[in-house]
């Protein structure tokens, strides 16, 4: 079956030991690309970080090569922030801070600590999965920026919205303009203001650059 949080190339499967896994179908269309695919698999197998979705194996014996990953059951950060169908929970202020820190740690690991540095060029809330404990898992290596993800966590607003003025449809621009006009606290999601200390929220925002 297709995985609800994933693109069409992702599917849910079950291994002989009954473990549920996520299967990504490769986009390879030419046999000459198989060698490059194998090299990428070798690099991915060397990644070992609790906040990066773990690659369990691959299959090269099918017409379309497949990657097998751990299955992360609780949907995407995007679904939880924007309360999409099938997701009923609301993420607390403390959980949002932790998810932001976990995502930053995973990206730092990929960019510098991994045996072969990997630059994740597609960081967005739909590529950050959450397990049953709301632990962040970075997935789908390929653009949004980490700063935009932080803005989503703070405001609960979507990265692109036609409900905002044309000049501020992009969340990064909307966020920065609101800060300059001292309207930042009005921009934040109500639950965040109720849970977090105003000074604490303000310090997180002023340190956040939309890059």
From TrEMBL:
Ranges of residues in domain Protein kinase: 1-211
Any one GO biological process: cell surface receptor signaling pathway
Molecular-function annotations in GO: ATP binding; protein serine/threonine kinase activity
Gene Ontology terms: cellular component: plasma membrane
PROSITE patterns named among the record's database cross-references: PROTEIN_KINASE_DOM (PS50011), PROTEIN_KINASE_ST (PS00108)
Keywords: ATP-binding, Nucleotide-binding
Keyword presence, ATP-binding: yes
Pfam families given in the database record: PK_Tyr_Ser-Thr
ATP-binding in keyword set: yes
Protein name, per record: Protein kinase domain-containing protein
Species this protein is from: Coptis chinensis
Source lineage: Eukaryota, Viridiplantae, Streptophyta, Embryophyta, Tracheophyta
